[in-house]
Amino acid sequence: MLVSAGVRPRKSRGQNFLVQKRIADRIVESLRICPGDTVVEIGPGLGILSERILRCPLADFQMVESDARLAASLDQHFGCDPRVRVVNQNFLTTDLRALTSQSAVRVIGNLPFNVAGAILERLCGFQDMIARMVLMFQREVAQRIRAHPGMREHGALSVFTALYWDVRDHFRVAAGSFHPRPKVDAEVLVFTPRSEPAFARDEERAVLATVRAVFSAPRKTVRNSLAGGLGLDPPEIESALARARLDPSARPATLAVSDLVRLSRTLVPRPNPEGVRDA
User: Fold this and answer.
1) What pTM value is reported for the model?
2) DSSP string for the chain
3) Quick one: how far is CA 256 from the chain centroid?
4) Predicted confidence band at 229 (pLDDT cuts at 50, 70, 90)?
5) Residues with Cβ < 8 Å from 121, sequence gap 6 or more?
6) Cα 274 from Cα 3, distance rounded (Å)
7) Tens digit of each residue's pLDDT (9 = 90 or more) over 109-157
8) Which long-range contacts (C-beta less than 8 Å, at least 24 apart) are formed by 140-148?
9) Computed from CA positions of residues 272, 277, 278, 279, in that sequence, does the dihedral angle turn out positive or negative?
């Protein structure tokens, strides 16, 4: 299909196309497509996942491809199916709500390694309309995404992910499964929205700012990271940490989502509305 589409993989776009059919089968099976579902595929590329998705009884299939040559080839190959819409856009500037009005969308994609983290962050903004996601990342990035407090890989990306998603499953994909072959292996992660919100919607900005500040200097103590990240005076920081029941000498990598949400509430106090429990 590369030849027929007149496409040469571009390193600048992070284009490494999955060619292993067995892996493609497993990825699509992990999405658990049900009759009547809406599916959005990010970066369908040569369409190896798309072919398998269209064997399922879905109602609507949105394919978001940033490469104009690939988008034209995908439209030629799949556009005759009334369920299909090929959208030639960069997903980082795509409004998912403009693609579909459905509230239980399933998202799938072999993400370009160079922008995968940014795409995941953007998907967090649409969490309320997503039922399940199956996404592929560079393995090192995937390990950071699913890391737990106390693990060496645990950091800001781990926390940002855990604020919105539960990682339900993961499996490794060898570098030889791609063309051209990347220097590293990949990993597929399966996400579902958190069963219970980690924070109230009006707290989101404060929580994210707290996470960024705490992990602005991940090798320092929480006390010192906050001082640099928020520019607060030491007495203010000590008071906030005490009220949040956190050890000022703790390292950021040891903090759980609940710790950071609680810390955010001491830094930016708010009324506790009915139905919102302390994390």
Assistant:
1) 0.90
2) -HHHHT----GGGT--EE--HHHHHHHHHHH---TT-EEEEE--TT-HHHHHHTTS--SEEEEE---HHHHHHHHHHHTTSTTEEEE-S-GGG--HHHH---SSEEEEEE--TTTHHHHHHHHHTTGGGEEEEEEEEEHHHHHHHT--TTSTT-SHHHHHHHHHEEEEEEEEE-GGGEESPPSS-EEEEEEEE-SS-SS-GGGHHHHHHHHHHHTTSTTS-HHHHHHHHH---HHHHHHHHHHTT--TT--GGG--HHHHHHHHHHHS-----TT----
3) 18
4) confident
5) 160
6) 60
7) 999 888 999 999 999 999 999 999 999 999 999 999 999 999 999 999 9
8) 140/184, 141/113, 141/116, 141/117, 142/170, 142/186, 142/187, 142/188, 142/189, 143/187, 145/120, 145/189, 146/170, 146/189
9) negative
